[in-house]
Design a protein that fits this description.
single chain; about 190 residues; alpha+beta; 4-stranded antiparallel β-sheet; elongated
Length: about 190
């Protein structure tokens, strides 16, 4: 049984490094696809938050609403991990645990039952495809800043999942993996599941 993991602090550092090209790609796509509609889209967002004649209330809403949206999306992100863990495990939801590492402000879903590498890869990347990629594509195609914001935020939120997926690819797709309880990573168990 080999442990393959990365310390949470290192994940945060790598997250900053990995986020830079993601941000650049999003900005380039945004610039080239929205060049003519860019100002109009921001006017629509500004109008959306003009709920009151009071500038302080509107400013407060502009600061609070995106954070509430991200908070809800983070919960959905972990629930998606949990859903696929439950779907692939023999004991269903009994094998899924949720938690939060306060020190790193990092929520997590954990499967206490070994899964195949391929299933773990699906578990790891499902939130990115559902909450990151699909809303981003929709936002770019239909000039929808709300969906683009969700997609962009959740793509950045999936950086830990990208690192986890990299670890899976690094060891190969022919193993049985037990999700690590306290680190970003897993234990190779290679027993029949």
């Amino acid at each position: 049984m080999d442990e393959i993991s990365i310390d949470s602090k290192k994940v945060q550092f790598l997250g900053v490094i990995i986020s830079i090209p993601i941000i650049v790609v999003f900005l380039l796509i945004l610039y080239f696809s929205w060049n003519e509609n860019f100002g109009e889209n921001f006017k629509n967002i500004k109008a959306l938050f003009q709920i009151s004649d009071n500038k302080k209330i509107n400013t407060f809403l502009v600061l609070i609403i995106p954070n509430v949206i991200i908070f809800i999306a983070i919960i959905l992100h972990e629930l998606i991990h949990g859903f696929f863990m439950a779907l692939f495990s023999k004991k269903g939801w009994e094998s899924v645990k949720f938690g939060f590492i306060k020190k790193y402000l990092m929520p997590f879903a954990n499967c206490i039952e070994p899964l195949s590498s391929k299933k773990m890869l699906i578990v790891a990347l499902a939130p990115f495809f559902i909450l990151g990629l699909l809303p981003s594509i929709y936002g770019f195609l239909y000039n929808n800043l709300f969906f683009l914001f969700i997609g962009f935020s959740m793509t950045l939120g999936a950086i830990g999942d990208f690192i986890y997926s990299y670890l899976i690819f690094k060891v190969g797709l022919n193993h049985n993996l037990l999700d690590h309880k306290s680190k970003v990573g897993f234990i190779i168990v290679d027993q029949n599941i």
